[in-house]
Amino acid sequence: MRRSRAFIPTIKEAPSDATLASHKFLVRGGFINTQGAGLYNFLPLGKIVLEKIRAIVKEELDQAGCLEVQLSFVTPIGLWERSGRSNSMGKEMLRIKDRHDNEFVLSPTNEEAMVELVKNRVTSYKDLPLNLYQINTKFRDEARPRYGLLRGREFLMKDGYSFHSSQEDMIREFELMEATYKKIFTRLGLDFRVVQADSGAIGGEGSKEFHVLANSGEDTLVICEACDYGANIETIFDEEEVQALNENSYEELQLKKLDKRCSCGGNLSFKKGIEVGHIFQLGTKYSQALEAYFNDENGRAKPFEMATFGIGVSRLIAAVIEQNHDENGCKWTKETAPFAVNILLSNVKDKAQVALGEELYEKLKALRVEVMLDDTKERFGFKMKDAELIGFTYTVIIGKELENGLVQIYDRKTTQNSSVRVDEIYAKLVELLKS
Ligand code: ATP
Ligand code: MG
Hints:
Elements: H1 21-28, E1 32-36, E2 39-42, H2 44-63, E3 67-68, E4 74-76, H3 77-83, H4 85-88, E5 94-97, E6 103-106, H5 111-118, E7 130-139, E8 154-164, H6 167-187, E9 192-196, E10 207-213, E11 219-224, E12 230-232, H7 239-246, H8 250-253, E13 268-283, H9 285-289, E14 293-295, E15 301-303, E16 305-312, H10 313-323, E17 325-326, E18 329-330, E19 341-345, H11 351-366, E20 371-374, H12 380-390, E21 394-398, E22 406-411, E23 416-421, H13 425-434
Parallel strand pairs: 3-7, 19-20, 19-21
Antiparallel strand pairs: 1-2, 4-6, 5-6, 7-8, 8-16, 9-10, 10-13, 11-12, 11-13, 13-16, 14-15, 17-18, 21-22, 22-23
């Protein structure tokens, strides 16, 4: 893409309500813009990152045997009345009326709709198991939609629902999804932990959350430094203590209720996390409420055993940045970077600079490298600031040193510049992009 033809409206000032790095940099870097409280438009750069994350999620789920569907975003209120959630979801559920006064809901999640879809279509144990998912818009009228993509009112979620003939088979799928989610977050280059989560009445191993570790996270986790044990503090402390811990008064409460050691002998410590995934053993709660049955081997009608699996796809964009940034802007991970290479022409009036930039641009494009050519007339300092804000993985600086046969490569992760001979630049970039 040529920067002169791109639509990347970067801005100097962060929105006044933005307190988090991801919110500031995603708006300032021209990835998203605010439509209203908790409502965001994705501009070309934001859309590229969103689609990259979506593709990885889809690829790993399809590998694990899940089937993608897409349910309608608007659902009739009757569906929610039958499960009892039209009341229990409260004000988070946004209701609308059509011209005939029929009431609808902008779906905050889709258990009911998915059960209705499977009900009477899957009738035999022979057709099970089944794992259906969608990557689709959700709407939750959050009380405080103030952290950019971390807590939108409208957001993109992957929601999956599995159907089984026995509890054992449901647990097998739950474990498969845990392993699949680990693959997804590992591919995204994130430092994350799987923790025991509050699973209400179901208890036990029934619910796990996936947290990206970042100081700005809203959740507090207890984590073992030696093994992979972790728990959301909601499972260990009472409500008041959770609130105190979330407000950062760690010291007073430091492991008050805990034996300071994990059962493996390792040290336990508190960490802040951003919830990016949640897997949940549902059992027969929804299949019973909505009378969704299959026939077992003996011809007896039984409610489906179910599990549900969620990933915050748009929240992940912000989580990547919360974990990877500096004071100047974004540092994308390899799989999430919107562009791997930015070719920065220091002076677009210099014919030699332009010729080299164009040549390199075409060669990298031929290799299908995601490359930006900054061919704008802006000053060098301005272009460099923009490159840091947006977070191109590598910026090739073609400037004055070209007279001596040299260009620079700026590495966004390390923020180091290195000089490379012009005749070696292409090979050097190919080598860097491979690693
Ligand atoms: P939270 O506790 O953060 O409000 P939740 O537990 O209500 O989330 P789930 O119902 O488990 O959320 O939804 C599945 C996933 O969707 C969450 O793990 C999270 O990553 C994402 N998610 C939930 N609410 C939002 C939101 N308002 N904005 C962006 N992503 C969200
Ligand atoms: Mg959750």
